[in-house]
Specification:
Low-confidence stretches: none
Largest sheet: 7 strands, mixed
Distance between the termini: 16 Å
CATH class of the largest domain: Alpha Beta
Mean pLDDT: 93
Number of helices: 14
Radius of gyration: 22 Å
Strand order of the largest sheet: 12-13-14-11-10-15-16
Number of strands: 17
Helix content: 25-40%
Oligomer: single chain
Length: 391
C-alpha cells in the first residue's frame, strides 16, 4: 500500500484511505485522456457514448465519490482518532448485454477504490470495456493507471453455464451484478466466501416527466439526445414520456418535434436491423391505437396516445402520453428507477411528497438521466468497496 489518502470528514474527523496508489495521480491519469479523446474516437463507440465518457472522466466528477463519501482531501493528519479504511478485496463484476457503456463507467469507479477486479463481459453485448482499455493503454501516461490495468484487472466473455462464473464468485470479496433478476439470483446461489458482499442491480425502468410549459426547443432536443443513447434498452432510458398537465394535442406536437429533430441527434444512418425493428414497432403501435410516426431514416418511431393503451415494442419506439402528476405517480411500475424531469420548479416540496412512497430511486434533470454515479439504485456501493481497518 502507498501512504494512502488523508481526508477531513464533515464532522472534522480524520479519515485515512489505504489505497495502493496516489489518488490524485490516478485521477490525473484518467483525466489526461481527455485531449486524446477529443482528437480520436474509438470506432467501437458512438459519438454520443464517447461524448458522455469524456464528461465522466472530468477530474471533478472522479473526485466526487471521495468527497461525498469520506470528506475533503487534506495534507494534515490532525488531532484525535483516525477512521481508517482499506479496499475490501477483489471485485467480481458481471456486466449486462443491453448497456455496453456501463462496463467502462463501472470499471473506472471501481478502479478508484483500489480493489482489483475480474470482469465478466456480457455474452452477447458489445465489448466496450476492452475497446476503451485498449485506448487507455495507448494514450495514458505511465503511472498508477497503467499499472492498475496491467496488474489488477482481468476480463473474459463467457456464458452463464461456464465454470468461470463459479471461480469468480468463489474468489470474490464483492460480487457485483448488473443484469436481470434471474442473473442476480444465479450469481447469489453460487458458492462464495461467507464474508463476501453481494451487490445486485437488477431490472429497472425509468420515465421522462415534462411539464407542458417547460417544453422548450432545448428540452425537446435534450430528450431526443437522452433517448438516442440506448433507446428504451437501458435502466436509465425513458420507457415512456409523460407530459404533466398536457393534452393529446401536446403529445402529438411533441411526437412531431422529436421526429423532426432526430436527424440532428443521429447524424449517421442506423443499421438495417434497427430500421426494420422500428418499422415493425411503428406498425404494431398503429394497430394498438397509438398515433405513431417514423423518424427520417427509420432510426426511431415516436408514438402519442393514452396511457392505458397496450404497451409498445421496439428499442427505439418511444411512447408519449399525458397525465396529471398524481395519476403519473400512481401509474409508475414497481421497479421504477429514474424519473428525468423538465419542470418549472423541481424544488417545489409537492414533488417530494408525491414521490415519497413511489419507490423512485433518482429524481434528476432530464439531461442527467444516464449519469452513472457512486450511489446507484439507492445503494452506496462504492463506499461498500471499503472495509474499516484498525486505527
Amino acid at each position: 500500500m502507498s501512504e494512502g489518502l488523508w481526508l477531513r470528514a464533515p464532522d472534522q474527523a480524520t479519515v485515512h484511505l489505504e489505497l495502493p496508489f496516489d489518488a490524485a495521480r490516478m485521477i490525473r491519469d484518467w483525466s489526461s485522456l481527455l485531449p486524446s479523446m477529443a482528437r480520436v474516437r474509438s470506432e467501437a463507440f458512438t459519438r454520443v457514448e464517447w461524448a458522455y465518457l469524456m464528461t465522466f472522466l472530468d477530474a471533478e466528477n472522479l473526485w466526487r465519490p471521495f468527497l461525498e463519501e469520506f470528506g475533503n482531501p487534506t495534507e494534515a493528519r490532525g488531532e484525535g482518532p483516525v477512521q481508517s479504511y482499506r479496499p475490501r478485496g477483489q471485485v467480481a463484476l458481471w456486466l449486462p448485454n443491453n448497456v455496453s457503456l456501463l462496463g467502462p463507467l463501472a470499471a473506472i469507479l471501481i478502479s478508484l477504490s483500489g480493489c482489483p477486479m475480474q470482469i465478466k463481459l456480457g455474452s452477447r453485448g458489445l465489448d466496450l470495456v476492452n475497446a476503451f482499455f485498449d485506448f487507455v493503454r495507448a494514450h495514458a501516461p505511465e503511472g498508477p493507471l497503467q499499472d492498475f490495468l496491467r496488474d489488477r484487472v482481468g476480463m473474459a466473455r463467457f456464458d452463464r453455464q461456464d465454470v468461470r462464473n463459479q471461480q469468480m464468485a468463489a474468489s470474490a470479496a464483492v460480487r457485483m451484478v448488473f443484469g436481470s433478476d434471474q442473473a442476480a439470483r444465479s450469481i447469489e446461489d453460487l458458492p462464495h466466501p461467507p464474508t463476501s458482499l453481494g451487490i445486485y442491480f437488477t431490472d429497472r425502468l425509468s420515465e421522462a416527466w415534462v411539464e407542458r410549459e417547460a417544453l422548450s426547443e432545448d428540452v425537446v432536443l435534450t430528450l431526443a439526445r437522452v433517448f438516442a443513447v440506448y433507446g428504451r434498452r437501458g435502466c436509465t432510458s425513458p420507457a415512456r414520456v409523460v407530459i404533466l398537465g398536457g393534452t393529446e394535442k401536446d403529445a402529438t406536437a411533441l411526437r412531431d418535434r422529436l421526429a423532426t429533430l432526430w436527424p440532428r441527434v443521429m447524424r449517421s444512418l442506423c443499421s438495417q436491423s434497427q430500421a426494420s425493428e422500428c418499422l415493425m414497432g411503428h406498425q404494431l403501435a398503429l394497430a394498438r391505437g397509438w398515433q405513431s410516426v417514423l423518424a427520417p431514416g427509420h432510426g426511431a418511431a415516436f408514438a402519442s396516445g393514452r396511457g392505458d393503451l397496450k404497451a409498445l415494442e421496439g428499442t427505439f419506439v418511444l411512447p408519449i402520453t399525458w397525465s396529471s402528476p398524481r395519476d403519473a405517480a400512481a401509474a409508475l411500475p414497481l421497479n421504477i428507477q429514474t424519473i428525468g424531469y423538465a419542470l418549472k420548479d423541481p424544488t417545489e416540496p409537492g414533488w417530494t411528497s408525491l414521490l415519497a412512497e413511489s419507490g423512485v430511486k433518482r429524481f434528476v434533470p432530464l439531461g442527467t438521466m444516464h449519469h452513472f454515479g457512486h450511489v446507484w439504485d439507492g445503494i452506496p456501493y462504492w463506499r461498500m468497496l471499503f472495509e474499516e481497518a484498525l486505527t
